[in-house]
Amino acid sequence: MATFPDFLRQKQRFLLTGHENPDGDCLGAQTALYHLLTALGQQVVIVNPDPIGRSFDFLTRHTPFGHARAEDPLPEFDTVVLLDCNQMSRVGQLGQRLLQKRPTVAVVDHHIGGDAGDGMVHYVDVKAAATGALVRRLYRELGVPLGAAAAEGVFLSLVADTGWFRYSNADAEVFAMAGELIASGVDGSRIYDALYRRNHPDSAGVLADALARHQLKLGGRLAMAALDKTLMERATRADFDTDAVLDPLRSIEGVEVVALLKERYDGAVKCSLRARGDVDVQAIVAQFGGGGHKKAAGATMKMPLAAAEAAIEGAVQQALLAQAARLT
Ligand code: 5GP
Ligand code: MN
Asked: Ligand 1, residues 82, 111, 280, 288: which to mutate, most atoms within 8 A of Cβ?
């Protein structure tokens, strides 16, 4: 069977995509793979289900990012590469449109959940800290030198998924790659400023109000913040990254799970869970059709906000009880 690097050489017209609301890892990995395929002489376009967030706009200096609204025609392609997710369902409506063209689907990913997901070919390592790290490995396997734009992309992937090197997934590969990327000219502090130091004047108020909604449950082991539509609309207007709510809650002594529930415009609830310690939050969100990693996972729950709060509290309680039973 052909290896994944062989596959990248053999196919010709690539369309790179990823999950809805693409994050830094997804966009950084796409950046790096775009330049790898270009170096191999392939045709390649990036088409995401959503436009890229303002904090990532520095990527567009060297890399063209597209996104497809329902009415937009799609470019020609014979191969779809899914990055930072493994199921077409995570690509939203665009996923269905892509499948109608009957392309070869390839997956480059590090999430838990069936080796290949929807991919016919795959390059997956659930132990890799970031999808961008996998694309860096592909450069090595193909003997292609990493250019400046791709280096910036890989660095973005690493910092996005390790919380700027703070999480337990920041392993030796991450630090070795980061050292090499900085040595090659990546300006880490400039990227930090681009990502986190251009906030809207209302962002501090939104953060304060979001944090004020938090509740400690289950004897202080679960910290939960539920953001209703009104607060979410303010957050969207201020281009506020709600991930900022997670960290202060995660820092409270005794908290083992943080749950951030966001009511969406369509009434569904986007839930993000983060774990400290040994609770497996991927297993918790799997009960609601979600996925992710052991310590960071999410799901879209089709129920009212109050019902989602109760459901998550119940599921976390069960997980903590099961953990206690295992330990005794
Ligand atoms: P976040 O909470 O930041 O949205 O996501 C945390 C992790 O869970 C990420 O790795 C993300 O890809 C994954 N994740 C978030 N939402 C979903 C979802 O609805 N389905 C699946 N399968 N994974 C998700
Ligand atoms: Mn990722």
From this structure: 111
